From TrEMBL:
UniProt-listed PROSITE patterns: BIN3_SAM
Keywords noted in UniProt: Coiled coil, Methyltransferase, S-adenosyl-L-methionine, Transferase
UniProt protein name: RNA methyltransferase
Pfam families found in the cross-reference section: Bin3
GO MF entry, a single one: snRNA binding
Domain Bin3-type SAM: 91-281
CDD domains: AdoMet_MTases
Organism in which the protein naturally occurs: Macrostomum lignano
InterPro entries: Bin3-like, Bin3_C, BIN3_SAM-bd_dom, SAM-dependent_MTases_sf
Annotated SUPFAM superfamilies: S-adenosyl-L-methionine-dependent methyltransferases (SSF53335)
Superkingdom as given in the UniProt entry: Eukaryota
Amino acid sequence: SSSTASTSTTSTSAAVVDPLNLRWVAAESERRARRGHSPLPGDSPEPEPPSANQQQQQQQQKFVAMYGNFRADYNRQTRGASEFNIGQMQDDRLQLLQQDWYTGRDVLDIGCNDGVFSMRIAEAMGVKSLTGLDIDEELVRTAQSNLEDRLRELEKEEEGKSDLARVEENKYDVIQAFSITKWIHLNWGDRGLKLFFKRAYRELRPDGKFIVEPQPYKSYQRTLLCPTHKQNYASNIELKPEQFKQYLEREVGFAHIVSVWEQQQCHGFQQPLLLCSKPSGRTPALAREPSQHNFRLFVPSHPL
């Protein structure tokens, strides 16, 4: 009787010490590891934290280019067109621009993206200065990286206390806006786009040129990337791209507007560029010596 009680006590004591049978689990896990077998269910090692490269890839997958601020590796398929990269599309468009619009001029490039196309214009056209403006800080950093080996002066200025950044009125001879009207329209509706056109007019010197690319209205629906886009597309857009020319003449005040057609035979469509001229008047004297080294970049915190 005494022996039975002792055995019972010993058994109870063992159950209390290892109630989950962890000793056996540990031994079995070690045995499986030695033999190269799969671990016990629930015994897998903790996953390693993602590397910096993996984190960057995850961020890129989540990235939504709601302002049309596509990265350099985006191609025309991403933007709802054909499978041609942005660089090739920009090269084709460069053929339409005339050197006498740019030579010796102060140029503002709104929506300069990674700066590559801006630099091509500066080099090919002999501009006096070219200021790049983009809403995306990462693209501006990329532009700085792309240009620092080719420019002696590169200045990044962060501005954001006014509508388009605090650029001076009547400062520029040429303002160009490629592939951005749709994104202004989708993010800020008619009001934002009209404000943009009027601000561009004010920043130009007399006899200055505004070069703008109206994007086809049929492309809007393919790029409704967020609720703001959908709301503006449904309720706040009445001014269609085919009406831009009339609005720029009658409401904004440009004296002469010419449509320059972009023939993209490889894409199978034509896309217009509008060359808008501000009326002549007293124009500050221009230094006509071209310079490839006066290039600035702006990042407006609040574009409109």
